[in-house]
Amino acid sequence: MRLGTLLRKDVPRCAELERELFAGEDPWTARMFVSEIDAGHFYIGAFDEDEHLVGYAGLAVIGAPPNAEAEVHTIAVDAKRQGEGIGKALLRELLARADAVDAVTFLEVRTDNESAKGLYAAHDFEVVGLRKRYYQPSGADAHTMRRPSLTEREGKKTS
After folding, report:
1. Alpha carbon of 152 to those of 35, 54, 67, 155, 156: distances in Å?
2. On the chain, which terminus has fewer CB atoms closer than 10 Å, C or N?
3. How many CB atoms lie within 10 A of CB 31?
């Protein structure tokens, strides 16, 4: 597997995966991915040995150190490839970008998505809030999770 910049040519596959993975919700459209890429946000793809897109992730960073904030917009992996560490690799790449600007990082995750919450907790995220009926049209709730900045995490290690 190779991680690389998500390009406009990858957008149709992203939209296809969205429809497959998030059929019961409001999956992102191709237009939404193009908008994120065009806005200059950090979007990456996971490509198999045949250069087929099997996952993607996106992060937006606002502000600059020491007040930078990052938000994980999306992480998704083809259902046939889940459990292979692709999601973890994508997340780590996003977090490296956030750490490069010492950003506090936020995300939302379904309250019933135990595997995702476990992955995020293993990467220093903590639940800081609840968003009722966040996901539509299902009305599923989401936890807001926060990962401290690199400076905050290093400060905890020395105290």
Report:
1. 32, 33, 12, 5, 6
2. C
3. 10
As beta bridge partners, residue 108 has 144
Q: Is the Cβ–Cβ distance between 54 and 47 less than 8 Å?
A: yes
Q: In what order do the strands lie in the sheet containing 104-110? A: 2-5, 42-47, 53-62, 69-77, 104-110, 142-147, 126-131
pLDDT in tens, 102-155: 999 999 999 999 999 999 999 999 999 999 988 888 888 999 999 999 998 988
The model carries a pTM of: 0.92
Half-sphere exposure of 18 (CA within 13 A, CB side): 18
The single-letter code of the amino acid at 59 is L
